[in-house]
Amino acid sequence: MDSKNNLVNTRRSFLKLTGLGGAALCMGFYLPGDTVPTLIKPSDLTAADIEMCAWILINTSGKVTIVSHRAEMGQGAYHSIPQIIAEELEVNLKDIDVVFAQGNEKKYGNQITGGSSTIRSAYKKLLKLSATAREMLIAAAALQWNVSVDDCYAEAGHVIHRPSGKKKHYGELATQASKLEAPKNPKLKKISEYKLIRQPLHRLDTPMKTNGTAIFGLDKKIPGMLYAAVERNPRLRGTVKSFDDSVAKKIPGVKQIFVVKMMVHNTIREGVAVVADSTWAAMQGKKALIVEWDDTGFEHVNSPEIFKRQEEFIKTKEGLPLKSQGDPTAIIEKSNKKLDVIYQTPYQSHSCMEPLNCIANFQGDTVEIWGPIQAPGWVQDFISTQMGIAKEKVIVNMTFLGGGFGRKAFTDYPHEAVLISKEIGAPVQVVWTREDDLKQGPYRPGISYRCEGVVKGGKIEALKFRMAGQNNDHWSGGKKDVPNDSTSEGFLEPYYASIKNLSISDVPFETPLPTMWWRSVYASTNGFAFESFMDEMAVEAGADPLDFRRAHLQDERCQKLIDKMEEVSGWKKRSKNEGYGVAITECFKSTVGHIVKVSKNASGGVKIDNVWAVIDCGWYVNPDIIRAQVEGSIVMGLGAATIHEITFKDGIVEQNNFYDYPMPRITDIPQIEVYIIDNEEDAGGVGEPGLPPFAPALTNAIFDLTGKRIRKLPFSLATV
């Protein structure tokens, strides 16, 4: 099948699914600049335009289809977007179909599922769009009945005439509604009027994910598809000197074996691809390969050397200032009683439950891609540049993602799949093993922090942070004389008002190891240093750690958050034999506070008894999804703080699979309670902000219990 026919069939399938025909109500936004709801008339557009422009489609049978512009990787976008739309559109969630949009930034704007941005970037537009459609449907009914619009209302996918009780379902009104002019300022509900939003409704994707009908990347199949596994250089930058494929070629089903070179950031990573008629055959062929690598010409790094060099840098260099006010350096240098300590956090793997995979079908001037992809626009840009194909000819189809955490926003694995498809002249699915995932990266960067401070009169007089870790921006050509703009990520904005002498600096540091975003990005590491050191200063001041933060966070929202933390944890009632720790961080416009309670266990280690988490994310959709995301963040933070890390020896990752990069087990998980602050502020993120406070709250609790200050992660709860 050529690419043109394949694309046409895809669009026909979409039209068949939605049942649009020539008459329906289709509405959307022309993003990113336009915030005015736009009526889209099928009669004026091609099939492709309908698919790519519309967010809400109502056909003549009354079926509502929502086009989800972002990926679903467990964070709940597949449900939350319909829950928003159903509220203002006045339809039942069970009557809604959801389809994933193809990558098209001209129509949908930024489609990157990252930075906890899906709801906070689009909710106001979605509310307005839904209310617009509702008012147009009500107006259409009023015209048909020749009654006043004010006497009509919408409910459960129908418009009802209040005086007579007459009603019509949306399908009966869609054609006429599509001919009306869209109101520019539809009336939106007050939060107090919501019937669906802020309710803990069951997720729409749960049945599919439990009965096996949800299509993840690994589930996707297309006609004529072959399968590939790749043996990649274990030192990440080496080249193929030679390979012996004599045994691999004898494995039934193996068809082709050749060298493939994919781009990882700004470097080339070489490997030997084995193409077969099944994933099993490809993987068996890969195991049978004998590859000789040329690993000359680049540094073979070792973990101890990385952190030793970082320590030297933060002890001897001032770095590039990102935030600076007052003169903290002068105050610290003159003080006879100052704190000066170093914190360190390790490299981490993303280790999504669904390993990396991608299907590509290269056909000359067109390429189509299917898979678990967080950033379709980035993939389109990259493939377009690398392959010399017009961006609109790079078609990216999103499936469900079995976890992403930033890793599946990268472009390396789609690029590799496209290169293999081009070589074999057929569609191919490339599947990574768990070992590939752990040993190939990219990783969350390991980082060292130097924290200096002076306390006077119970308050912070001077505070100075220096960070040495790889800057992810440098991989994409970011200026190396400019500080990493994420150096302060996690640090609460109200601190700047209360701490008059403050500086946060980036000490540039590089290794050849590929790094990238990881859940909550730099806040996941910064938060450990910032909030652990905040605790050290509270101890120096002789102050209660929570009261100390309260004194320095005068913002009203922070005060309410602290009030709630104190209330739910029983902070003021804690006994001397219990260890309590607190941490508060901010990222992606949400503030989260954790209080962790620990105690000694029978074997001499420490066990976590309770975690209380309070989140202020402003306007929100579904409290159950928020709780699940915060709980998941805590579990992920627990693993990164106490269980696993990525280490390097002679340039090779030492970890291989879950037996030496273990995940937290259910028996490791403490009691977790999540509380949501209700307010009407702008929406913040939810998927990531719950992670950064956990590690410092835990180590602060351990200090409270044992007097031992933990400044390096990971550590063992059994031997602390």
Automatic annotation (TrEMBL):
The record ties this protein, via PROSITE patterns, to: TAT (PS51318)
* Pfam families (alphabetical): MoCoBD_1, MoCoBD_2
What stretches pass through the bilayer? Answer: 14-33
InterPro entries the record matches:
Ald_Oxase/Xan_DH_a/b (IPR000674), AldOxase/xan_DH_MoCoBD1 (IPR008274), AldOxase/xan_DH_MoCoBD2 (IPR046867), AldOxase/xan_DH_Mopterin-bd_sf (IPR037165), N-heterocyclic_Hydroxylase (IPR052516), OxRdtase_Mopterin-bd_su_IorB (IPR012368), TAT_signal (IPR006311), TAT_signal_bac_arc (IPR019546)
UniProt keyword list? Membrane, Transmembrane, Transmembrane helix
GO MF terms held by the record: oxidoreductase activity
Domain Aldehyde oxidase/xanthine dehydrogenase a/b hammerhead stretches: 211-297
| Keyword Membrane attached | yes
Q: What is this protein called?
A: Xanthine dehydrogenase family protein molybdopterin-binding subunit
